[in-house]
Amino acid sequence: MENKQIFVKGLFWRKPADNAPDFVRGKLNVNAKDFIKFMEENKQYLSDKGWFNLQLLVSKDKSSYYFTVDTWKPEISKEDSEKLKALRDEHNKKVEEIEAIDPNSVPF
Length: 108
Fold this sequence. Notes:
There is one protein chain. The protein is of the alpha+beta class. The protein is 30% helix and 17% strand. It has a domain of 59 residues. Strands 1-2 form a two-stranded antiparallel ribbon. It has a two-stranded antiparallel ribbon with strand order 3-4.
């Protein structure tokens, strides 16, 4: 887990306008060029499934909001890591066995 904050470039959250309906909670502005560049430069923070996990934070003086990359990852013991690897290997072996079955040999 990192303690360093990674500030997201290209995303800006704004409070809703004073005359906005109650269900409007805010406005997200995206500078596509800056955000795409930020994502390309920070691929190491993508989750295993391809997500950037972000946090919306409020400034100390409560006047503005900003996004940071959520870098938290659960800590896993070496023993649990080895168990997980064994389960993944077993799963992959079963998948290979299933993929090796000739569909024409199935009697139904």
